[in-house]
Amino acid sequence: MAQPSFSAEVKNDLARFIGRRACCRTAELAALLRMGAVLTLGAKRTVGLAFTTENAAVARKALMLLKGSAGVMTELTVSRSRRLKKRNSYRVHVLPSREVAALMGRLGLMRGSALNMGTDSALLKKACCRKAYLRGAFLGGGSVSRPDAGYHVELVTESYSFAELLLSLLRTMGYPAGLTDRKENYIVYLKESDAIIDFFSLLGAEKAAEAFEVTRNLKEVKNQVNRLVNCETANVQKSVDAAGRQIAAIRALEAAGGVERLSAGLKEMAAARLEHPTATLAELSALLGIGKSGVNHRLRKLAALAEEKEGRG
């Protein structure tokens, strides 16, 4: 049996959360239905709603929220997709009735007899309701990459006005959200790790927030180790290159017969470098019993003498 996607895992966690306040449940249901519901028509100009999802927990959440609305009748049907992955599709149907129009009015989906494509401002006055509204939006049309695959959250809707509302809401709450389009959909997205961690903490998806935080911390440690290794590698390469130049200078002095005329200290330095071609300054310092600055000074002096000999030649 295939493992659920990370998005499905997050939605399963969020679907278990039931808001205590009626206003929050209303806000969550409104966003959930705006994301994925369509109108259905019944007899005598009555309307109904149909909400479809591939997540069983989200379907149960939608049913629970709808059954809390007095007077509407619901039914659930399950069908098997004919696509390659053959996932189940869950259709929550609010049967057409006069009560549905009243429900849509309470949810802000209708104003009078007309559909409301506006801002849902009446539902978003309280901080708790704004949180619930975003939870409903994610349940209805959200997705998130696995933490180890990157930082990316999307809220996908066919409605440009709803996408603009979500974008404005997120930005007002301090999130660096962006908006783009893909085929016939509009996508509101988050890409920064801190914002995504805070977003899922806000919604109540603590496991998802923790997973992103752990992954981010591991990446930071890995990057720090890589920086240290790269720095050490660069330092080793510099030491090897410097040692090569020093040995070449000493060989040039030998070829010009200049080594014999060196001071005792320089002779000792030249012999030690030739005998220990890969030794670091610290190792040469310990070998000769002088400071690193003294070793460096003598090696520079040998290089200068070699250049001088070459210039004369």
Question: What is the structure about, briefly put?
Answer:
The chain has eleven helices and ten strands.
Beta fraction: 15-25%
* Net shape: rod-shaped
Based on the coordinates given, report the CATH architecture of the largest domain: Roll
Please give the domain count. 2
Give, in spatial order, the strands making up the sheet with the most strands: 1-2-4-3
Query: How many β strands by DSSP?
Result: 10
Query: Distance between termini?
Result: 81 Å
The low-confidence parts are: none
Count helical runs. Answer: 11
Overall pLDDT: 88
CATH class label of the largest domain: Alpha Beta
User: At the third CATH level, what is the topology name of the largest domain?
Assistant: Endonuclease I-creI
User: Main β-sheet: number of strands, strand sense, barrel status?
Assistant: 4 strands, antiparallel
Structural class computed from helices and strand pairing: alpha+beta
Secondary-structure element pattern, one letter each: HHEEHEEHEEHEEHEEHHHHH
CATH superfamily of the largest domain: Homing endonucleases
Quick tags:
single chain, 313 residues, alpha+beta, Endonuclease I-creI, 2 domains, four-stranded antiparallel β-sheet, 11 helices, 17% strand, rod-shaped
